[in-house]
Amino acid sequence: MQFFDATTLLLVNALFNGMAALSWALLGSVFRVAPRASWLLAGAHLARLGALRCHECRVDWPLHAWPALPDLFALLTLALMCLGVRQLLRLRFWWTDVALIVGAGTLLVLALRDQPVLLQVGGSAAMALLALLTWHDVRIGARPLLRTSLRWLLALPYLAIAAALAWRGSRPFWDADSTSISPLTIWLWLLLSLASAVSLMALVLDRLVGRISQLSLEDPLTCALNRRALMRELQRLQALVQRGHPFCAVLLDIDHFKSINDRHGHAGGDAALVHLVRELHQELRPADVLGRLGGEEFCVLLPHTQLPEAAGIAERLRARLENRPCPGTIGDIALSASFGVAQARPGELRPEAVLVLADQLLYRAKSLGRNRVCVEGDGEREAPGEEAAAGGSA
Ligand SMILES: Nc1nc2c(ncn2[C@@H]2O[C@H](COP(=O)(O)OP(=O)(O)OP(=O)(O)O)[C@@H](O)[C@H]2O)c(=O)[nH]1
């Protein structure tokens, strides 16, 4: 049974690729979704149109190179698709490996243009390599949160394209009529194009979902974790305390922040908050968690940390803030903060109990003169007087 003749199928294929190119172009230019990736993928579908057109009108091409043109367009299609996927997945934008394969493939295809059988073998090999690269990129680049099985599923169409190209390249060895294109073959390519388009759309959706969930957990000004995300981390760490992994909470509040706003304006205050988060991150370990509780109050969660060590870290943070003023438009903005440090207890049912304790210690640090660290059970730590930072401005 035969569904449609080859010409009709080529037309359907061309229509599909034209629509796909238009969709990616709209996505990139109007909706600004992954614009660079979208343009590369729109280019890939346009190049595919070129490859199809060449099959259709071989007799019309006056160029000497016409036998090689379908393969050259197909090479371009796969190269643009590979680069588009890399861009979409925000992988390090390597293009040298793709350029090398395309360069070598182009030379091979042009050199073999008068030998259809060898042309088919060489062109297919270069294209299969590009499809394999894309398969590899999707597998390693898709969001780590995605289940492994889902990542494999999204990468599968590229493996299937590589397999189909290997089949095409091997045909001359076992099929006397290897250069002919049957409707079945065109069906196969149409299905593979559809499968890769679905996979690409799923990757775009995944990228959007990833961005939205990141925004829902992030403080928009400082990019530190927001209160909700911080509470989630707190719960996770409290669960680990029961299994013998201690953690400490450090609460800090900028001193006299109101006067920073008064003197440097709201924009100056905002810049000071961003500066504080940047400075704290420089001092913290990758596993430490920094979040903004609200206003000028922040919290650091220190996993696998006992109280004396946490007190030392808080003191380092305090000194760093004091010694590194924030550059402002009307002069440096001197910053200091008061700290409360407490350790989570095993068996505590309310994860926020450690925050309540740290908050009391922070309040104590404020009442003792600010710009100092107060540690649970230990009284406050020595710190320079607040005069250096009082007024918040140099
Ligand atoms: N620029 C800016 N200011 C903020 C933001 N959130 C809260 N504030 C301001 O921070 C100030 C906090 O002032 P207070 O609570 O009196 O605390 P303080 O002046 O730091 O005094 P102490 O904490 O007692 O040292 C208020 O004026 C708020 O308007 C913000 O996101 N940006």
Q: Mind telling me the C-alpha Rg?
A: 30 Å
Q: Fill in the CATH topology of the largest domain.
A: Rhopdopsin 7-helix transmembrane proteins
For the biggest β-sheet, the strand order reads: 2-3-1-4-5-6
Beta-strand level of the residues, as a percent range? 5-15%
Order of helices and strands: HHHHHHHHEHEEHEHEE
Write the CATH architecture name of the largest domain.
Answer: Up-down Bundle
Distance between the termini: 85 Å
Q: Number of domains in the coordinates?
A: 2
What is the CATH level 1 assignment of the largest domain? Answer: Mainly Alpha
- Helix run count: 11
Q: What average pLDDT do the residues reach?
A: 88
The major sheet is characterized as: 6 strands, mixed
Could you explain the architecture of this structure?
This protein folds into 2 domains: 6-216, Rhopdopsin 7-helix transmembrane proteins; 227-388, Alpha-Beta Plaits, CATH 3.30.70. It has helices at residues 6-29, 35-56, 69-88, 96-111, 116-141, 148-174, 183-216, 227-241, 257-283, 307-323, 353-367; strands at residues 247-254, 289-294, 297-303, 337-343, 373-375, 379-380. By secondary structure, it is of the alpha+beta class. A 6-stranded mixed β-sheet has the order 2-3-1-4-5-6, with helices on both faces. The chain has 11 helices and 6 strands. The protein binds guanosine-5'-triphosphate.
